[in-house]
């Protein structure tokens, strides 16, 4: 299992701060650095800069919403990032949420599974440097993108439901989950996407699980803090469905919280259920918790080397 670092600086820091965060993650031994695309800096633009400054770590987005971006334009941007970073980009994409696409952006969220299937039918060939000729209900695209010095990039999608996991297995390289607990990963995510990949004679999918992490002596306080920090995710329908499947009240209940040994054991256990990558989302509040969490993650990295 590869261990990744889920950065938060891109939303509240400068570009230099993001570079420093990614550099620190690389120095700490993390295999990947994941940047969210929310309402701060544009993730791909910043990762292109990071790729020139930080030489080795894999760079991923978690995740870029598809509806506002034409797949041909997104392919062009990703190939440019790969040219800047020496081919280290993993593009994470997702539908976002109906409330964002319709109510904030004023766009249609109609038939999301069809949208993603057609989107990947266009983006997939372009990601490999091929031309595309696709005619569907949403997209009709004929063209190619030529970015000298680039190379193909991987694609994972934020897939949680059975239909979207099938799309991830057949048209992408895997899935990246958030707010999805270990029981749901073991009983739903891993077997569903793996079976779909097997049925389509596709390679074993990449299964990236992102979860909140904090080493602390005050478990109750940390969970109370997590409940506030991650409250919105318990209200969004796609995440709410996964939390309900897990049988928990909210995101705080699936956070990996406790002593250093407890956190190490729970993180390492994800490999046994088929998770290929664990992306740690830290939410420590003081230096002691930050240092203790870093020490725990160093052990997890060593255990999975």
Summarize the SSE layout with pairings.
Blueprint: E1 2-6, H1 9-12, H2 15-27, E2 32-35, H3 43-53, E3 58-61, E4 64-65, H4 71-85, E5 89-94, H5 98-104, H6 112-127, E6 132-135, E7 140-143, E8 154-157, H7 162-171, E9 174-178, H8 182-199, E10 206-215, H9 219-229, H10 237-246, E11 256-258, H11 260-272, E12 277-282, H12 287-303
Parallel strand pairs: 1-2, 1-12, 2-3, 3-5, 4-5, 5-8, 9-10, 10-11, 10-12
Antiparallel strand pairs: 6-7
Overall body shape:
globular
Structural class: alpha/beta
Overall mean pLDDT: 97
Number of helices: 12
Question: Helical content, roughly?
Answer: 40-55%
Radius of gyration: 19 Å
Tell me what the CATH architecture is.
Alpha-Beta Barrel
In the CATH scheme, the class would be Alpha Beta
CATH topology: TIM Barrel
Summarize the structure.
The chain is an alpha/beta fold and 305 residues long. Helices cover 48% and strands 19% of the residues.
Give a written overview of the molecule.
This protein is 48% helix and 19% strand. It has a single domain, classed as Alpha-Beta Barrel (TIM Barrel), CATH 3.20.20. The strands form two sheets. Strands 1, 2, 3, 4, 5, 8, 9, 10, 11 and 12 form a ten-stranded parallel beta sheet that branches. Helix 3 packs parallel to helix 4 and helix 4 packs across helix 6. It is α/β, with parallel strands linked by helices and 305 residues long. The mean pLDDT is 97.
């Amino acid at each position: 299992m590869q261990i990744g670092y889920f950065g938060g600086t891109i939303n509240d820091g400068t570009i230099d701060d993001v570079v420093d965060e990614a550099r620190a993650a690389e120095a700490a031994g993390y295999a990947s650095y994941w940047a969210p695309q929310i309402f701060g800096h544009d993730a791909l633009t910043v990762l292109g800069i990071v790729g020139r400054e930080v030489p080795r770590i894999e760079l991923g987005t978690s995740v870029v919403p598809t509806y506002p971006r034409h797949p041909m334009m997104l392919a062009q941007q990703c190939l440019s990032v790969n040219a800047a970073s020496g081919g280290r980009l993993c593009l994470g994409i997702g539908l976002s949420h109906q409330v964002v696409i319709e109510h904030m952006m004023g766009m249609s969220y109609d038939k999301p599974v069809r949208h993603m299937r057609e989107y990947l039918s266009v983006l997939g060939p372009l990601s490999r440097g091929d031309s595309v000729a696709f005619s569907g209900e949403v997209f009709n695209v004929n063209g190619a993108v030529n970015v000298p010095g680039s190379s193909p990039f991987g694609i994972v999608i934020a897939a949680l439901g059975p239909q979207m996991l099938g799309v991830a297995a057949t048209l992408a390289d895997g899935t990246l989950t958030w707010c999805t607990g270990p029981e749901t990963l073991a009983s739903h995510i891993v077997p569903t996407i793996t079976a779909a990949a097997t049925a389509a004679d596709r390679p074993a999918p990449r299964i990236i699980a992102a979860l909140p992490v904090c080493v602390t002596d005050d478990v109750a306080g940390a969970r109370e803090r997590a409940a506030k920090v991650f409250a919105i995710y318990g209200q969004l329908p796609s995440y709410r469905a996964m939390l309900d499947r897990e049988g928990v009240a909210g995101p705080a209940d699936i956070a990996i919280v406790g002593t250093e040994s407890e956190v190490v054991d729970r993180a390492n256990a994800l490999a046994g259920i088929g998770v290929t990558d664990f992306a740690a989302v830290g939410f420590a509040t003081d230096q002691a918790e930050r240092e203790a969490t870093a020490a725990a993650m160093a052990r997890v990295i060593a255990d999975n080397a």
